[in-house]
Amino acid sequence: MLGKKFVYLSKSAINAEQPLLFPVYNKNGNLLVEKGTMLTEEQVNKIQALDEIFTLHRAFHTVMVDDRSESADVDAAYKLAPPFQRIEAIEKMLLDIYKSPNHPTSLSKILTLVNRLQTICDKSPDAVIAKIILDSNDNYAVKHVIHTAILCELTAKYLGWEIEEKRSLIAASLTMNLSLGLLQNELIDQSEPLSIEQKQIIHDHPTESVSLLKSIGVQNLVWLEFVAKHHESPDGSGYPENLKEDNIPLGASLIALSDVYCAKVSGRNYRKPIYANVAARDIFLGKDQYTSETLIEVFVKMLGIYPPGSLVKLKNNEMGIVVKRGERVDSPIVQILDKNKHGQVVHGVKRQTSQKNYSVSTIIPLDSSDFEIDPDSIWPA
Hints:
Layout: E1 6-8, E2 24-25, E3 31-33, H1 41-48, E4 54-56, H2 57-66, H3 76-80, H4 83-99, H5 106-123, H6 125-134, H7 140-159, H8 163-175, H9 183-187, H10 196-215, H11 221-228, H12 250-265, H13 276-285, H14 287-290, H15 293-303, E5 311-314, E6 319-324, E7 333-339, E8 345-352, E9 360-363, H16 375-378
Helix pairs in contact: 4-5, 5-6, 5-7, 5-8, 6-7, 7-8, 7-12, 7-15, 8-11, 10-11, 11-12, 12-13
């Protein structure tokens, strides 16, 4: 194996009927299978029967941060679907991973989801923000990490991050709660205090999620560090290690910030969702607990005070839904909503709320409105 740098390859990374993401070598450095090969079940069994298998360090690192294999398994229907339906397809795939994180296909599926999420965020950024604001709480465990990943991707892009670090950030966001499985679906409806056992599981989940990711073949240290430290706080009050600001990477702080915001704008059985503008204000006022003031300012500037999906009332008493962020944080573009004589929702003109007469007066609770929102017509493919 002289002359080439190899790394140990987890056998769970070798899957039948899926293109290999990297070449596979035996312990003597002999090439067993080329990258891109579609293996049969029998071939997979033969490779997994070997004592050890390896791949090139460069190939392994690249696929962990810049996998391009998505196009092979994304069908035409998915590509042509409107943004909300594409996010829902991502939810279904991630739900399978959270149900069976140790499944041999989990790693390749996670990498595919990173691709898909970054693609839809790049193509329809306002629509994916609206999905966060308008989403229901069913399958909260999966939706929450996707919402967090969306805000991380958009903020990191706003900051001009390099693609390798962005991909590690999104992978970490999607897998930060992997060891919790679907426990959060139960906790969101739990009104009584957490039990001692639940508190311990929550306290340990960053460390346990890292262990789980390593077991399925993740060796990307940036990805693992972001997961390990996403609940640490600058003031040292976080967990599991009570780290302080200098020991917390920016990516972990961005995940924590997005995590908190998404939790605030999602309801519980014992409280309604907090308005987006109030959630942004609360985070800014608690900046010492969450992260640096600069990152919070960038986050709010990227998102806006009235993000897409918010139902608002304008100064002229018109009601509408925010469809796009504006040039200023307080001046989005609003689609006016009305009803025809048959009681059907119709879309009126779009208002530039930077104009004084059309400025936003207040956010309206979604559940207090009799407008039924059709996101596919507002944010089409």
